[in-house]
């Protein structure tokens, strides 16, 4: 571990050639030298574990309308789009209390732990089918063969979505996820706004169809969810369903592919998981810590925010570097940069955020990751990489676009 002071001022720079293949050395430098980082692009970035964890629990705003005039607001204006493009700003992850409290209560009435746990048998069947195909092919692209179709199929079946154009939905959801990227690119902003509008219409049609064709599924439960006379409006319902649909598979793709890649690059830990299947649950927590499916989360200050000897002014956009915080040596110890499946405090990672915005689908992601990765490594003792990893080009949702394997 280096403690030397950089010769030039450090800034968060994700556009270097080697960043996408491995951003963690850059995160480490930021964490050690500028853990509270005022970026010249008009935002702040926190990367120490304690600072990030406190920010996630702070109750600060997530509503982009509170960002003060500056580079971000100006970029939206120049692009000719609204500064709140995603799902009309109605999704849970875009709302503050008390709206968030009301919406989450209604959504959790349908998206229950019982409903999630009931999916494990179906998840196992889907994984077994995917592994059979991989075995027959002798390998292939893990993203296409398992990491994407598994969570996409699971959330589609849970919701009870009518048949859709899977390829188009995948394209739209991938584009929509660029809305969580720290970008001021007008072309990207316009693409996000267009994808958002199209997804809203597609899911709106599914909601209307489901009202006429109710069933024992999550979408019907959301339609009928009621709390003392309070129900979700049509736009609120569409926003929550779209959020569940998108977040319900996009992040889990990264967990399955990133977790598998981490094991393949750490053969000693891969052998440990095969030898000690009882480590499976803790292994998923460590894989979540080691390479977070979501690298950054954001908050917006409504009043001065004190952190690390700095006062961040009201209206500031703060990027919480979840992935960097997960490897903070001051919290996880001197081996924080290493993968260790028996790590005792692995579950203390911040990969699912925290506070009132703790990821609603965390339990489902854990089950999918455990069943998929556990099944993969047990089924194929000769599992190995079969080529170079291709990355998806995203910063906050960095993950593999293609992961070639041989079995």
From TrEMBL:
Pfam family, one: p450
Ranges in coiled-coil conformation: none
Signal sequence annotation: none
InterPro entries: Cyt_P450 (IPR001128), Cyt_P450_B (IPR002397), Cyt_P450_CS (IPR017972), Cyt_P450_sf (IPR036396)
Keyword line: Heme, Iron, Metal-binding, Monooxygenase, Oxidoreductase
UniProt superkingdom: Bacteria
GO molecular function: heme binding; iron ion binding; monooxygenase activity; oxidoreductase activity, acting on paired donors, with incorporation or reduction of molecular oxygen
Gene3D superfamilies tied to this protein: Cytochrome P450 (1.10.630.10)
Keyword Iron belongs to the record: yes
Entry similarity comment: Belongs to the cytochrome P450 family.
Protein name: Cytochrome P450
Annotated organism of origin: Streptomyces cyaneogriseus subsp. noncyanogenus
Lineage: Bacteria, Bacillati, Actinomycetota, Actinomycetes, Kitasatosporales
